[in-house]
Write a structure and sequence with these properties.
The protein is α/β, with parallel strands linked by helices. The chain has 16 helices and 23 strands.
């Protein structure tokens, strides 16, 4: 039994209000999670605000050293971190291992980006009457950053928020998802061991309606970085006042497979992109648009590959499909599939739930207004839809309130250029799935997929202000 602790004002603390942390695969009680009282939230915010000048003055080489040290320590603690991710989130061991490997790399990216924070000179004498003046701008930290990550990448999405904030010279208040607190607690310990000043980070647990709302609404917080649903994103936007915001709000990502695509490459990648972590990935493949001439062959091979996936205990190396984050979420996805089938969709495989484990599911004959098409399933469900022309396929991808990433499989150069120019998303992955992401690239979306960008260099830009300096000699 784990008794998790919060980190407030430089000390590990607990409270008298607890909830249970449950293993989503077998229902085992993993530990007890304390919830922050209003007084604890106030202490954390006051401490973060009071120590923001200290972090701003911490030399860049020291910030980089801390992040580099953290990467080394995380590598040492890799097995403990993998185990925490698997037990709390239900992510299979193979994907938890990938997440920790990416987390180590992500800390290194932040350390490197930290060393390249800079401004530019401004040619003041380009303006009549400003001869003899010297101008330049520089980047300065915003102050206090509130980081609110989700459950599905309980390490790497935390690093995407915390590491750039540290690199930029900010203090951080971190509120992880309540069902996956362990990776955040271990990461905070790693950062402190790496040399991070004790008052540079606060770790709070609790509900979004209490802790999250307090962080969003408090005027001492200068920046909120959040990953979650559009309704919560809208709430944050409406309550945050003049704060800087990064909101990553999900998608129903589309993938195009045209008549020139290499199916030997496309099918394994799309299967991976559809069902990794049971589809609980913001850029998981949800809508597959296949040229009508390839439809029968693609569908047959895709279903065969899907049926070959192994469901079971996420801690076992051979497992491909583990549980969803809760049985309630699995029940929701099962209901959406049943509603689609009742409305005329054709179930090719899957569709059944075993407790919190949802079978990888493939549908055809879907309509755009079905929940499995127009909303974010966030589960192991994909739909295959034929198209006639490439313009038609682009229109189908763009027929969505979301716009995070899209994938296009083609060997036809004009189609590549069309996709780049016309697909309305934050990232177009050519000959790969929308699920592809490396951690140094700018990552974010348009429309209801949110605003702002992650990736160390780009997050640092959004966690700093530009300060203009003019010298009149």
């Amino acid at each position: 039994m784990i008794y998790y602790k919060m980190f407030v004002a430089g000390e590990w603390v607990t409270s008298e209000k607890y909830t249970k942390v449950i293993n989503p695969y077998n229902g085992e009680e993993l530990g007890m999670l304390p919830h922050a009282y209003p007084s604890m939230i106030e202490t954390a915010l006051a401490d973060a605000y009071a120590h923001r000048p200290d972090m701003a003055e911490l030399p860049i080489h020291k910030r980089a050293e801390i992040l580099e040290n953290a990467a080394r320590i995380l590598k040492r603690e890799k097995e403990n971190m993998i185990r925490s991710i698997v037990l709390e989130s239900g992510k299979t061991r193979k994907w938890a291992t990938v997440e920790v490997t990416r987390g180590i790399e992500n800390l290194k990216f932040a350390a490197e980006a930290c060393k390249n924070i800079h401004g530019e000179t401004v040619p003041m004498d380009a303006s009549v009457g400003s001869e003899g003046r010297l101008g330049f701008w520089m980047r300065v930290p915003v102050g206090v950053v509130a980081a609110i990550p989700p459950f599905n990448f309980p390490l790497n999405l935390v690093i995407h928020k915390v590491a750039p904030a540290i690199a930029a010279g900010n203090t951080v208040v971190l509120k992880p998802a309540s069902n996956t607190p362990g990776p955040s607690q271990l990461l905070v310990k790693i950062l402190l061991e790496a040399g991070l000043p004790f008052h540079a980070i606060q770790l709070l647990y609790g509900n979004g309606s209490t802790v999250g709302a307090a962080l969003v609404e408090d005027e001492r917080v200068a920046k909120v970085t959040f990953t979650g649903s559009p309704p919560v994103g809208r709430y944050i936007s409406s309550k945050s006042g003049l704060k800087m915001l990064t909101l990553e709000l999900g998608s129903n990502s589309g993938t195009i497979v045209d008549e020139s695509a290499d199916l030997d490459t496309a099918i394994p990648r799309i299967v991976m992109g559809s069902f990794a972590f049971s589809g609980q990935v913001c850029i998981s493949v949800q809508r597959i648009f296949v040229h009508q001439h390839l439809m029968d062959g693609f569908t047959r091979r895709f279903v065969e590959a899907t049926r070959a996936l192994t469901m079971g205990n996420p801690m076992e190396d051979q497992t491909d499909i583990g549980p969803m984050i809760s049985e309630q979420e699995a029940m929701r996805v099962e209901k959406w599939v049943q509603e689609a089938c009742a409305a005329g969709a054709h179930l090719l495989c899957g569709g059944k739930r075993h407790g919190s484990v949802m079978e990888p599911t493939v549908l055809t004959d879907v309509r755009p207004d079905m929940a499995v098409m127009c909303r974010e399933v966030f589960g192991p469900v994909v739909s295959i839809i034929p198209f006639r022309t490439f313009d038609h396929a682009i229109d189908l991808v763009n027929d969505s309130v979301f716009g995070l990433q899209a994938g296009v499989f083609t060997q036809h150069y004009p189609h590549i250029m069309q996709a780049i120019k016309k697909i309305d998303v934050g990232g177009v992955m050519i000959n790969d799935v929308p699920t592809y992401r490396v951690d140094q690239m700018p990552y974010g979306g348009v429309k209801e997929s949110g605003l702002g960008r992650e990736g160390a260099r780009f997050a640092i830009e959004e966690m700093t202000h530009i300060k203009m300096i003019m010298l009149n000699g």
